[in-house]
Amino acid sequence: MINDNGDGRGPDHRFVSEILRANLARKGMTDTLGVHLCTVNTETYNGDTAQRAWLKDRLARITADPASMNKPILIQGHRPAPGTVMDDQQTANPLLTQDLAGFPQAVYLRGHSHLNINDERSIAQKDFTAVNDGSMSYVEVDHGYQAITDTGLADRFEATTPQALFIEVYKDRTEIARVNMNADKHDIYRGGTWSANPRPPYASSGTLSGPAWTLRLKGRTSQEIKDNFRCTAAARKQDRPAVHLPARR
Predict the structure, then answer these.
(1) Which residues lie below 8 Å from residue 43, measured CB to CB, with a gap of 6+?
(2) Average pLDDT score over residue span 196-215
(3) Given the DSSP bridges, would you call strands 174-180 and 213-215 parallel, antiparallel or unpaired?
(4) Strands 152-153 and 148-149, bridge-based pairing
(5) Is residue 104 a contact partner of residue 217, using CB atoms and an 8 Å limit?
(6) Cα(first)–Cα(last) distance of the chain, in Å?
(7) 25 forms bridges with which residues in the sheet?
């Protein structure tokens, strides 16, 4: 919920937490259940045997409880894991993909690439669920493509809209909403400097960047849950609109 990469910015993070807690209290939602949330350090994961052992043990303990078989386990990390979202762009830590493969309840949330969440490749399900979470700074269009603006094709692959995910966990499903935080002029990195430093109030409260993704962990075994995944590469190909070419004469 914040855009800063500098040291000493702890108060910024606490400010967001205070806003969330205040609004939960205001809405009478202080008894809201939490879900399991694990954080991994993707800067060291591949060579960190202790961290790998901790994560696998934690996941095994959670999923050993029959009551947790069909509940999501949120896992957050900075870098994308190979073989998951956005066609493997900017991925690292192949052992993270390997370690999560036995736990279809895992929902891995990652950033780093700044690739936009409008793209349906921003969610992927194979052995677990992986989701790209955009960026609160700027987002990027897929390299090889260009955005169309009111003055023509953009000369940069960055787009000046921050994006984020809003995740709601229900008893029978998990809803992931994709949100453009605002539509005002924001900042991109050009020539070694940031181009803007916007201040509220903003002209727009935000828009959706696509329909919400719905995750259902249905099945009595891990394999059954995987078999019921719907955000797979195969399903994505089937959902593409048909292209009708004119018949030759």
Answers:
(1) 78, 79
(2) 78
(3) antiparallel
(4) antiparallel
(5) yes
(6) 57
(7) none
Q: Which pair of tokens denotes residue 155?
A: 């000369």
If DSSP states are collapsed to H, E and C, what string results for 118-147?
A: CCHHHEEECCCEEEECCCCCCEECCCCCCC
The count of other CB atoms within 10 Å of the CB of residue 249 is: 3
Continuous segment of H or E residues that includes residue 207: strand 207-208
Asked whether 30 and 41 are in contact (CB, 8 A), the reply is no
pLDDT digits (tens, 9 = 90+) for 24-44: 999 998 888 889 999 999 999
Structure tokens given for 231: 């955000």
Tokens of 124: 């992927």
Alpha helix (H) residue ranges in 27-83: 49-64
- Omega into 94 within 30° of 0, i.e. cis? no
Q: Helices then strands (H, E): number in the chain?
A: 5, 15
